[in-house]
Model the fold of this input.
Amino acid sequence: MQLKDRMELNLHIGTREVPARVMLKGRQLKPGEQGYAELRLAEDIVAAQLNGSSSAAFRPP
Done:
């Protein structure tokens, strides 16, 4: 999946699924490129970093 600025998706974190919007920082990303993004969630969530890593999955709504 290619991330685009302001793209809507669902964030799966822990046992939750929350609608989110991707806000790319800087420029548009081409396939395979890396960059920074902010996720703006539709609701507040609690996420803990228990073992030095966290896991999340995304899918289009």
In short: The mean pLDDT is 82. The radius of gyration is 12 Å. The CA atoms of residues 14 and 52 lie 15 Å apart. The chain is about 0% helix and 40% strand.
